[in-house]
């Protein structure tokens, strides 16, 4: 897909981190961008910077997502690109014993379900609604009607202690990539997923610098945290390359996560 001012994109989680970097990258080609996020302050500021539109969207809420797409399409037209970066995580063991009291507890299902709803169901909700919109468009000269890029995690393949919910949600994103790509193949819509490793995003913003350096040192090469711009580069290539379809690609400096 040739990126230019005739193309529109929706980026979930677009106000910061991986989503913001991807929005900036796409906008550098002239692409019109809509940012779906809950952080209105950052989202409005970035949308203004890029000449795009901010939509206050909660991906777990059907009406919120519908309203977001309606606002985005009214402002910049039907998107041909969807980048799914909205997500979160927690760190809770399946069952655990308190070291001091010996009290046994288990992972509360509502906390498990929250991660699934945001990372997995929220991603699918946006894919389904965006794909339906893309199907209303004529194919471009390259043959594409649209391109979708999802965000999983290396935790989908080597989740650490306490990451049962997070790994399950991201594993689900990986698992549905190929079936969705096949579902949409006759409609000329491509679907791919990136599995980022340890990236320097707002999730790590509060960590002390020595902690960040220690995390980066675990990466075989280059021994550092990933930069959001590197994610944006791969996401953009997945959109531009017409033969990129149905793939799940690790972007991690060759790291394989240890149990903890």
UniProtKB/TrEMBL annotation:
Coiled coil: none annotated. Gene3D superfamilies: NAD(P)-binding Rossmann-like Domain. InterPro entries: NAD(P)-bd_dom_sf, Sc_DH/Rdtase_CS, SDR_fam. Signal peptide: none annotated. The keyword Hydrolase does not apply. It comes from the Bacteria. One of its GO terms (molecular function) is oxidoreductase activity. It holds the Pfam family adh_short. PROSITE patterns: ADH_SHORT. Keywords: Oxidoreductase. Belongs to the short-chain dehydrogenases/reductases (SDR) family. PANTHER family: 17-BETA-HYDROXYSTEROID DEHYDROGENASE 14-RELATED (PTHR43658:SF8), SHORT-CHAIN DEHYDROGENASE/REDUCTASE (PTHR43658). This is Short chain dehydrogenase/reductase family protein. It comes from Hyphomonas hirschiana VP5.
